[in-house]
Amino acid sequence: MADNVVVARNTENAPKCPMCSQTVAFSHYNNLSAQLPVDPKTGAIVEGGVKEQAEQCFRNIAAIVASIDHDLNDVVRVTIFVKDIMDIDVVERAYKSFFTTYVSARTIVAVNDLPMGALVQVEALLTNGEGTIPNEPQAGDLVKYANNTHNAPFDAMSTQSVAFSHYNNITAQLPIDPVSNQIVMGGVQEQTAQCLKNIKAVLTAMDVPFDDIVKVTVFLKDLGDVEAMNEIYKRFFPDSGIARAVNYLPARTVVEVADLPQHALVQIEAVCSHGDGTPPQAVEARHGLIIEANNIADAPKDELSSQTVAFSHYNNISAQLGVDPATGALVAGGVKAETEQALKNIKAIIESVDHVLEDCVKVNIFVKDMNDMDAVNEVYAQFFPEGTPARRVVGVANLPMGAAIQIDAIFGNFEGTPPIA
Predict the structure, then answer these.
(1) 75 versus 131: which is more confidently predicted?
(2) Which of the ends of the chain has fewer CB neighbours closer than 10 A, N or C?
(3) How many C-beta neighbours within 10 Å does residue 42 have?
(4) From which residue to which does any coiled coil extend (predicted)?
(5) In the prediction, which pLDDT does 282 show?
(6) Are strands 329-330 and 360-367 parallel, antiparallel or unpaired?
(7) Is pLDDT of 283 > 90?
């Protein structure tokens, strides 16, 4: 089978940015850049409040999706960032006007800042049924699986899990007891346990093992709770005897947010492998694909995550700070030096698995001061001079180790991962 290719595309009907592509397809997924409420004709934030801004974000997504011959029913995950968690009801009304029948997996968080002073920013992950292998079909028209179980919290505005090809995308789970539909009693530890129980229930309903999770994102209201959260996290990962034998841990990002739905203390998002794929798999009829986790000495190590986890045609990179792996400390010099080191760490990790920066399809940037983005972009352009990867930028009040910036990324995995022997 030929190698997949990274396909970056832009349309005049949505805002353009020199630092990223509107959509980057690789294999069976299209990764969209987070959309601000910018009118593509004027390049400015639309007039009005959060309602008008939310509608413009969704219009931009719809325009990008239409430009690559897809539609909104092909969306598998929507991520919504707001400045004020109390605006969610208004944003949801806009959301429902675009997703009138089908609703995808979803994540909602409030953050401290957004580019251009926006009130809302929306990101989407989209299927790519035909794949991106040049001049030949990669598979037939794959089926998108949407699944819900009564053993996890139900939300009419999202689907608990949406599987397509070899990945399951799990709606970010709040610490809600599915029986009472209320936040569980207790603090961050009890809430962390409930989030992870909910994820496990969603996966169990599809006969997917917990250790098939390849990437976890933990949103905390207070980064000071990270040690308490980690104490519970360690009880869930690794989950099985096989995973414990090899100490398999998913890639991970931990970030502080301004607020969460229902004012929860923690919310956890998971991306999981789907080994048998969704049918038909006429060409890519490989069952039991393996998960490949890798760590190297040339990038910072974390006892609770793998630096990169590859499954099928994607490599998922854990969030990187501007930490010098030789010293274990943040580099001196401020945000520019930290940005350079974080990207060097990502470069070292992906090159350790025989890939290059040009294979990057998505970059997520968390920055403490949005005013630093000019400096960040100056460094970023040295690593991604073509501005190819799709991108998300959000402002946060706090990052691990007091860092100024944190970056995670998703890369293509041209050869895919082989089936279990």
Answers:
(1) 75
(2) C
(3) 9
(4) none
(5) 54
(6) unpaired
(7) no
CA 337/CA 378 separation, integer angstroms: 11
CB 198 within 8 A of CB 152: yes
- In 128-206, DSSP assigns E strands to 145-147, 161-164, 167-173, 176-177, 182-183
Does residue 389 surpass a pLDDT of 60? yes
Cα–Cα distance for residue pair 388/24, rounded to 1 Å: 8
- For residue 110 the two structure tokens come to 């409030």
Between CA 26 and CA 92 the distance in angstroms is 29
Q: What confidence category does residue 287 fall into, taking pLDDT thresholds of 50, 70 and 90?
A: low
Alpha helices by DSSP H, 99-213: 188-204
One-letter amino acid identity for 26? Answer: F
Contacts of 351 (CB under 8 A, 6+ apart): none
- Residue ranges and CATH numbers for the domains of the chain are 1-133 (3.30.1330.40), 142-289 (3.30.1330.40), 293-416 (3.30.1330.40)
User: Taking residues 339-354, what's their average pLDDT?
Assistant: 98
Six-digit token pair at 146? 């949407």
In 78-140, alpha helices (H):
88-98
Joined tokens for residue 334: 């401020």
Which strand (E) or helix (H) includes residue 343? Answer: helix 335-352
Relative to beta strand 105-110, strand 75-82 is parallel
Q: What angle do CA 356, 359, 364 make, to 5 degrees?
A: 105
Backbone angles phi, psi at 355, to 5 degrees: -125, 175
pLDDT band at 4 (very low <50, low <70, confident <90, very high): confident
